[in-house]
Write a structure and sequence with these properties.
Blueprint (H helix, E strand, L loop, with lengths): L16 H16 L3 H14 L3 E2 L11 E6 L3 E6 L9 E7 L4 E12 L2 E9 L12 E8 L5 E6 L19 H5 L2 H4 L7 E4 L10 H14 L9 E7 L4 E3 L5 E4 L2 H15 L7 E7 L16 H14 L4 H9 L2 E4 L3 E2 L21 E4 L3 E2 L10 H13 L4 E3 L9 E2 L3 H5 L4 E6 L1 E2 L7 E4 H16 L3
Parallel strand pairs: 1-2, 4-13, 4-14, 14-20, 15-21, 16-18
Antiparallel strand pairs: 2-3, 3-13, 5-6, 5-10, 6-9, 7-8, 7-10, 11-12, 12-22, 16-20, 17-19
Helix pairs in contact: 1-6, 6-11, 7-8
Length: 458
């Protein structure tokens, strides 16, 4: 086993006061940014306070200029102009701010035997049984027929009701227990319990009518408005420290908001870098980076084209291509942390261990590296030097044993431009569960690692 894996990130770790404050900010970020819209709203507000200006308000792109681009309120990019011309390349850290969840269907509301429910459709890779019998909250937006946007957050404050999805009592669960785990709870069985008080209603489906009246009275929502809604069911409650020694962080959506937060902290205090410095926050990674807010969309390319035009006074497509091809990037995403309770699916010599620092992965993908971006060793060596010089604890890892499965990141959609890309994040326990676990020490190292990469002058 490599000597790199023996040294712990905790060894000789001196946490600065700024990093201590960052931990509190991270807990708030996780607690308040439970959807991609909410996450970007927080990041955008931080960026505005730090001097980033919206792209359509910028007149030029000279060294030190800070620029932001919002992508339909669910993704975004931040950039700081470097001293070198942009067509010589740039430094990029790209993460994603969506997370596995349950989405409300377009025609969700129904009543069955006096109980009302929302139908849901799960988003991303989840274990369905993990989403039953726990406190849930409802977050999102409803766009009314007249275009008015209604923002909804229910279940996060003490006076709010919470929601739940029912499970079968063990006394009657013989047949359920005989099924495979992924069959015990079905996707169509993930129905959100809403209410059953029909006392002020008459006629059929009284409980449903009562819910509709409540929605109309409090939010102005009609039943047809769910067609133009984006409502997400997420775990209720705040992120918090975990473990007797408070060495872990427990919270929803740490895949990949832990990397998104670290990327923000890495760029937050940069003023005039050598290379143009960019951090990107993508949506839709958990479902293949589709849609016009996912990484397959061309907003990074278009953003670079805008910056080249601002920098040179005219559009030059060749310079745009050169800038993208000469860029160097970290795909900021988490890795599967080694869990002794499930050691049989991990290769111990190539696993990510909590408390051993930031994780670099030459490739991800499934089985025969399907869907992977396989980083070049020359670039890996450069990243090693950067981290070593910055005294960042780091390790290497793969996503479990070869034939166990696998997964991908947004790295492959950055690599298509010819840029150098390496996956880099932290190990996570209980990944894609309603509550995920990260190491405090690893997060601190990741913030340092991303900053060192962005400001490195080669």
């Amino acid at each position: 086993m490599s000597s790199k894996k023996v040294k712990l990130a905790w060894d000789d770790l001196i946490v600065s006061e700024k990093e201590r404050r960052a931990m509190a900010e991270y807990l708030a970020f996780l607690s308040e940014g439970k959807t991609e819209r909410e996450s970007w709203k927080i990041l955008e507000s931080w960026a505005q306070k730090a001097g980033f200006i919206a792209l359509d308000e910028v007149q030029g792109f000279k060294p030190g200029q800070k620029v932001s681009l919002a992508v339909r309120g669910k993704a975004g990019i931040l950039a700081i102009a470097g001293h070198r011309p942009l067509d010589e390349g740039f430094r990029l850290v790209a993460a994603h701010i969506d997370a596995p969840r349950l989405d409300i269907k377009q025609h969700p509301l129904y009543e069955e035997e006096g109980l009302t429910f929302f139908k849901t459709h799960y988003y991303g890779g989840i274990k369905k049984y993990q989403w039953t019998a726990l406190p849930l909250a409802l977050h999102g937006v409803v766009i009314l027929r007249d275009g008015h946007k209604v923002e909804i957050i229910i279940g996060e404050v003490d006076d709010d009701p919470i929601f739940t999805i029912t499970d079968l009592l063990p006394h009657l669960a013989k047949e359920q227990n005989d099924k495979k785990m992924h069959e015990g709870i079905t996707g169509e069985g993930l129905n959100l319990l809403l209410g059953h008080d029909p006392s002020n209603e008459a006629g059929e489906e009284r409980a449903k009518s009562a819910i509709l009246h409540l929605l109309k009275e409090k939010y102005g929502i009609e039943e047809d408005d769910f067609v133009s809604a984006e409502l997400e069911v997420v775990p209720a409650g705040k992120a918090r420290y975990s473990g007797l020694d408070r060495s872990f962080i427990a919270g929803y959506g740490q895949d990949d908001r832990v990397c998104s937060f670290a990327a923000w902290k890495a760029i937050e205090k940069i003023e005039q870098p050598e290379w143009t410095t960019i951090v990107l926050f993508a949506d839709k990674e958990e479902i293949g980076s589709e849609s016009n807010t996912g990484m397959k969309a061309l907003y990074l390319e278009n953003f670079i084209a805008e910056l080249i035009t601002l920098q040179n006074g005219t559009y030059d497509g060749l310079k745009v291509r050169r800038a993208l091809a000469k860029a160097k990037a970290l795909s900021a995403d988490v890795a599967a942390g080694y869990d002794p309770n499930y050691a049989e699916v991990m290769d111990k010599r190539n696993s990510a261990y909590l408390g051993r620092g930031v994780v670099i992965s030459k490739y991800t993908g499934s089985r025969g590296k399907s869907g992977a971006s396989d980083a070049n060793p020359e670039f890996i060596a450069e990243v090693r030097r950067i981290f070593d010089e910055a005294k960042v604890s780091w390790q290497t890892a793969e996503l479990g044993k070869v034939d166990q499965g696998g997964g991908g990141t947004i790295a492959q959609y950055m690599a298509i431009y010819g840029m150098e890309v390496l996956d880099c994040g932290v190990g996570i326990l209980s990944m894609h569960a309603p509550w995920e676990i990260a190491s405090v020490a690893d997060l601190i190292m990741m913030m340092r690692a991303y900053h060192a990469f962005l400001v490195y002058e080669d």
